[in-house]
Design brief:
The protein has helices at about 5-15, 30-40, 55-60, 65-70, 80-90, 100-115, 125-140, 155-165, 180-190, 205, 215-220, 225-230, 240-255, and strands at about 15-20, 25, 45-50, 75-80, 120, 145-150, 170-175, 195-200. It is of the alpha/beta class and about 260 residues long. Strands 4-3-8-7-5-6 form a 6-stranded parallel sheet, with helices on both faces. Helix 9 (about 180-190) links the parallel strand 7 (about 170-175) and strand 8.
Length: about 260
Amino acid sequence: MSSATINATDIHLAKLEARILGVRVHGISRALAVAWIDAWLASRARAQVVTVNPEILMRARRDPDYGELLERTRLNLPDGAGIVAAARLRRLSMPERVTGVDLVDDLAGLAAVHGYRLLLAGAAPGVADQAAAELQRRYPGLIPPATMVGRSGPDGDAEAQAVIQETRPHIVLAAYGAPAQEFWIDRNLRDLAPVVGIGVGGTLDYLAGRIPRAPAPLRRIGLEWAYRLARQPWRWRRMRALPAFARLAILEALGLKIGVR
């Protein structure tokens, strides 16, 4: 695929961009997200993808460095029922929620077909290995993914770059939690191509079977967060951002000024 085709694709993608509380989110479907990632890899491009949920969005509003990073990423997907609801309150196009778990599953299938190499980084020791084994079980044609635990801060970059240089991955899934995983990708993949880096939070824990995913009916009605809170009560500190996000989203839909922070 030519660079001209990719440039035209990126121009079209920019037209699908929405601003939710000032943060870029692209209103595209899961299938289209996978197609774009495939196109970037086929053209030997580099891309960073963020799955934006309300917690990430609120963090970006109060952290200028993180907010600036999300201005530079190539694709910001709506991972969170609240993101989709906030867009629809303002009649912005946001077809569906695109979760990290579903996206990783789709990309593993894509990698099995096209021979893309995966690197799974982060999570607790052993989790990435179990997640890699599960992806291979689902997609027997998948090249065995490389794995590493590593450290999310700059003190772990030398190790990360050594592993990346040795394994030459096409898709890097970083599970260090936001915002550390996005900064990790930005530092360690910025000079590489073709490669797509995605921060996937707890996705590897789900794939490894360490954490059960919410039943499909709860996911469909946007209550996956409640299921996670019931299973992991310690998450209440992180979820304190949800009421503030909802309040600001309503104010924005009413056309009222919400400020920068």
